[in-house]
Give the backbone structure.
Amino acid sequence: MILLLNLIGSTFFVFLFLSRAYIIFEMGWRGMTYALILLQSGIAGVLLVINAKPVKNTGLPAAIAAWICAVLPLLFRAGEPAYLALPGLLLMLWALITLGKAFSVVPDDRGLMQHGPYRLIRHPMYAGELGSYLAICLTALDLRNVAIFLLILALIAYRIIVEERVVDGYASYSGSVRWRLVPYVW
């Protein structure tokens, strides 16, 4: 079932890549932000196809929560300036590239990552996502965006808890890298 979710997910990210490329082509180049979003979709789609088999699975509820979290951002109403999302996007890309074949939307154990941005915070991919989504909320502040952001935040917190329970060696890692998402906060 999880393999099927990854296959569907990979197709989803390829679709996102193609639709975002089309938007850039149709609307004209609108800066680095859109190029990074396009790059993130393409890399994620490829990595889902070639990702490493998990050592331990977190189970179907975590997989469903993860994929809901991956689709929810499509419901945001974005505003300008889009460049406010750049720090989050850059952190997300750095984490994505660092993960390489260990990347998956589903928080399974594909080995403990301890280099790159994972030396600074334990969940830089999630931190980058939340940072870019918060920027979207700030550029188009309305009840819908805030509700979507809060739901994504809750799902990411759930994914973090599940992931930390299943990844081998996590207790030791959390002793050396104290902060999950935001230094001095959590």
The longest helix spans residues 2-27. The mean pLDDT is 83. Helices lie at 2-27, 32-50, 60-71, 86-99, 124-139, 143-166, 170-176.
